[in-house]
Design a protein that fits this description.
Shape: globular
Distance between the termini: 40 Å
Length: 319
């Protein structure tokens, strides 16, 4: 009788633990989608009264303080050996260079387009993995999806030709995407090389923020004349605080939490969801205007993304 009670209690405990795990995973997934959908808007809003370099510097320095504080609370070390520094340098390409180009481009682009262009990053990564690094083999459907997405981007380029510096902004953000993807491959190489180190995700983020902050502090004197002469509005300050805490720190927590708990196909769905939400939020909150030609191009890009990820989703469904 007691054995039966013990077994029943153990089974109930396992069910409760599984339910809690599922709930936490759902919250993390929802949080990641919402943060990635709203981050481009917060970037655009933070540039209303600040130079891009100053806005990014303030964001990274605040994020560094938050990340280092959380790392201390978790009692996790911040390794500073040679292998760790190489990882931080690799990670800084997805922060310093990628965000530098993104902030420069955000001066000219609506937030929805920024999110859409970053949605192409898995396609760019897949292309380099297949052509350059030979670590992934793309099938016909994925090549077709990539081709359709490029056609959509070309349509956006064509629609933007008559609209000031939008093309310049798109080029800047595309450079940011290339830096972001390059950082992923470099970091993967550092983690897998002989003598490599496995870092806590927050330690990796903190170290990369540290190097990125140093890089921006070196850059700031060249933009001293564009320094803020007065305290920005509450909207601008709130956007920077949101970018620093949620986009630079909390999103990383959610992402690395999900990587080990959900299927890659499920995680990749965020790439399709976030541009749709970002464009809607940009038009609703920031009154951003996208022409029908741009919206058509965006729809074509999303179709390409859906087609590119379709084989992964199909395999996950039948696994």
């Amino acid at each position: 009788m007691n054995a039966e009670l013990d077994t029943s209690a153990t089974h109930s405990g396992l069910k409760a633990g599984h339910a809690t795990e599922s709930f936490n995973t759902s919250i993390a997934y929802l949080g990641l989608v919402l943060i990635w959908s709203t981050t481009p808007l917060s970037v655009v809003l933070s540039l209303r009264e600040l130079n891009p370099i100053w806005s990014l510097t303030i964001r990274f320095l605040l994020a560094l303080v938050v990340a280092r504080g959380v790392l201390w609370l978790l009692k996790e070390p911040l390794p500073m050996d040679r292998a760790a520094m190489r990882c931080y340098l690799a990670g800084s390409f997805s922060l310093f260079w990628a965000m530098l180009f993104t902030y420069l481009g955000a001066q000219y682009l609506p937030s929805g387009l920024i999110s859409l262009i970053y949605g192409l990053s898995p396609l760019v990564a897949g292309f380099f993995a297949h052509v350059v690094f030979k670590s992934q083999r793309l099938n016909f459907i994925q090549w077709a999806g990539m081709f359709i997405a490029v056609l959509g981007l070309a349509a956006i380029f064509g629609a933007a030709k008559m609209q000031g510096n939008i093309v310049v902004g798109i080029i800047y953000v595309l450079l940011g995407v290339l830096c972001y993807v390059g950082s992923i491959f470099w970091l993967r190489y550092e983690n897998n090389r002989e003598g490599g180190v496995s870092l806590h995700s927050l330690a990796q983020t903190t170290g990369s923020l540290l190097l990125s902050g140093i890089g921006l502090l070196v850059l700031i004197p060249f933009y001293w004349e564009q320094r803020p002469m007065a305290i920005p509005s509450w909207l601008c300050v709130s956007a920077i605080l949101y970018s620093a805490t949620f986009a630079s720190v909390l999103a990383m927590f959610c992402y690395f939490y999900l990587v080990s708990r959900v299927k890659p196909a499920t995680l990749s769905l965020t790439t399709v969801m976030t541009p749709i939400l970002a464009m809607g939020l940009g038009m609703w909150i920031n009154h951003e205007h996208l022409t029908w030609s741009m919206l058509t191009g965006a729809a074509i890009v999303l179709v390409g993304l859906l087609l590119y990820f379709a084989p992964d989703w199909w395999r996950a469904k039948n696994a």
